[in-house]
Amino acid sequence: MIAYARRKLASLPYDGDRLNAKYQVKEVLNFSFSLLPSVMVSALMHTLSLVPTLLWVNGIIDYPFCCLFYFSAHSLNAPLTKLTLIVCHKSMRQRFQLIFVSRLGVKSPTMIERDTEKEGKEYFDQMKMAW
């Protein structure tokens, strides 16, 4: 996919009609590069999930511990894979920060201090001028 996107990006001419296509091919290329670390994390987690099974088959650990480690590795795979993709892809990282990180801090609104005595005096001065 990466090699195809690189060839396609190089072969597209730079003119007004092809800007949209060039942008889409560039986005596919960026997403493909961002997907590689996520795929590697997933492959590593699946490989690590085989370790408890091999230990159980060889009689080193009991079956309940095998299940615990096996399903823990598989349960951690999904969030780690998604987190890796979010960290590696610039647009996803920005969108994640916009949606979730900006909500963590509570912004207190600045209070406008009103001088009611001054406002009242200005109001009645304007009323005197109008009459």
UniProtKB/TrEMBL annotation:
Record has Zinc as a keyword: no
Positions in coiled-coil regions: none
Alphabetical keyword list: Membrane, Transmembrane, Transmembrane helix
Transmembrane segments: 28-48, 54-73
Keyword Transmembrane helix: yes
InterPro entries for this protein: NRL-GPCR1
Protein name: G protein-coupled receptor
Organism: Pristionchus entomophagus
